[in-house]
Amino acid sequence: MAQIKQWYDQWGFWGNLTAAVTPIPYKVFTIASGAFHFSFGGFLLASLLGRSLRFFVVATLLYWWGPSIKAFIDRYFNGCAWAFMILLVAGFLVLKILR
After folding, report:
1. What is the dihedral of CA 4, 29, 84, 44, to 10 degrees?
2. pTM to 2 decimals?
3. How far is 9 from 34, CA to CA, in rounded Å?
4. What number is the average pLDDT over the span 50-77?
């Protein structure tokens, strides 16, 4: 538990943000945020950004492509969400290395 607490102190915002966007069970991170006394402001910001991104992207896709995209989203959402997060993290790593 001490190791998990240390990880949560260091990466809690990014963990919450990742869980809010990807298929990782978000409830686990909400409970962990309380258990490990993660800052409410950090949790709220990660939740607002992540959940908004997840649902607004789906809503935008449905708006532009209509019902034809729904089957694609239902079938491939988890894989697309993971790919998005991997690309996002890789992009930040590349920017960090280039600095």
Report:
1. -120
2. 0.69
3. 12
4. 88
